[in-house]
Amino acid sequence: MLDGLRSSSFESCYNRRMNDRFPQNQYASDPFFNKRSRERILLPLIGLLVGAFGFSFALTCLYHAMRGVMRLGGFVASGGPYVIAHEAPSWIWIAPVSIVTGMIFVFIHWIAARKLQCLSIHALAWPALFLSLGYNFWEFGFNPPGGGTSVAWLICGALFWLMGAVPVWIVGRAWLRTRSEKRLRPNTSDDPEKTNKMARTQWLNLTVVLTAVAGIYLAILFFRSLN
After folding, report:
1. Could you tell me the pTM of the whole model?
2. Which helix (H) or strand (E) holds 222?
3. Cα separation of the two ends of the chain
4. 144 near 182, Cβ under 8 Å?
5. φ, ψ for residue 77 (rounded to 5)?
6. pLDDT in tens, 131-177
7. What are phi and psi of 87, to 5 degrees?
8. What's the rounded Cα separation, in Å, for the pair 64 and 213?
9. Which carries the bigger pLDDT value, residue 78 or residue 158?
């Protein structure tokens, strides 16, 4: 009996020391270390990546479609009883489809990012749209297809950049304010739960950025294959 008590006492003491050195319960609240929570976040994680990829893909397609139309003079058409100066290219359908699908993907990404509490590109979707398309207006405004300068396109470029720059300024100020507030908070590096959450969020943010870059690259290849 004494041997049994000693054995159980030694085992409980050993387990207690191991739990002190390698605490497992600190991961209980982290969805990435909890099986049931991992199952719950699987769908938001898929939506997060699909939304980031889809939006960047759609925006890149719209950017290149706009450039293609502007190379033809900025106006294309097909069919009808009138004489058409520039026939609409076969890929013109990409422009309206990319606008609609881009908005859908942004909404999906925003919902998933709120669920996972990580980086969301929805705040930069509006600036990315107007700054990129505004660049096209500036470039072709100074070098239009017929030569000279297109004042109308330059005005459109200025308006697009204004609409894109104002949200960037607002988001930038909010980000700087958040960063300054975090510096004033007490150090939480000794809190394992918060440290794990910060590390998880950083990995999710990096994954979102890489997924968006992949969407841009594949959209460029896709649009080139249509020409």
Report:
1. 0.74
2. helix 192-226
3. 85
4. no
5. -160, 170
6. 999 999 999 999 998 888 899 999 999 999 999 999 888 888 877 88
7. -70, 140
8. 16
9. 158
